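Researcher: Can you fold this with iron/sulfur cluster in place?
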Amino acid sequence: MTDTAAAAPTFPVPTSLSPSRVSSFTSCPMQFRFSSIEKLPEAPGPATTRGSIVHRALELLFVRPTTDRTPEALAADMTTALAEYATDPDYLGLRLDADGAAKFERECHALIDKYFAMEDPTTVREIGLELWMEAEVGALTLRGIIDRLELDDDGELVVTDYKTGRAPSGNYEQKSLAGVHFYSFLCEAVFGKRPAKIRLMYLSSGETIETVPSAQSVKFITTRTTAVWSAVERACTTGDFRPRQSKLCDYCSFQQWCPAFGGDPSRAATEAVAAHEALLAQPTGAP
Ligand code: SF4
């Protein structure tokens, strides 16, 4: 090796980014290191698991012929989705007892209560469900899963994203649309056509936020994502993933290894895996 040889990266540099990874890095680089670089298991949370189950129920609804997409069918699809998740590690890791499981089930059903007031699924012309898409930007692959891609009355593409959390206040509305602008970029890259509309359906409140993507908004996504990737690459090379404290720390699975809380990140790789395995080995609550 010569003196001019580049130093080996401290962490492997990822070659792909998704909207959630971009958001994870910008929210807290240290958490990004734990979850996306070291890929440490995270304690499952009820909100995330509920979200996955609701997405699955809606996917099942749209697999049905249009005339079968009724409230009764969606309730049945929710029951099917809950049964599918009964043996999923994310569900088992919640350690719910019988009462907790019944409450969890009610909360999942409550999340679809307002759905039929938001849209009529018999009129939706879906062309893709849970659609995996990826596109290259230089050496980087951008990828994401679109909940639903459909055609409007004019045959134009519409991207729909289901949300099970709270709708953002006005100030945060544009930020919440960053993910769907990312999907808009993917559509343009894959289909050669920019969607006419992107929409977020907030199922818990029944609100829908819509926007029309522009050449500028799509370009902004590639510029921003490329900048984030450069910062990720730099952090991987230097090993400098700074903790960024916020209210998200209250829900962070890695707080005990976070230097901002007096933890030692180098212990996370072994201890997080052991803690996760111990959690899953405990007797399960009744699904
Ligand atoms: S506890 Fe907070 S600062 Fe530390 S890794 Fe988690 S989110 Fe980041």
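Model: Folded with iron/sulfur cluster in place. DSSP finds eleven helices and six strands in the chain.
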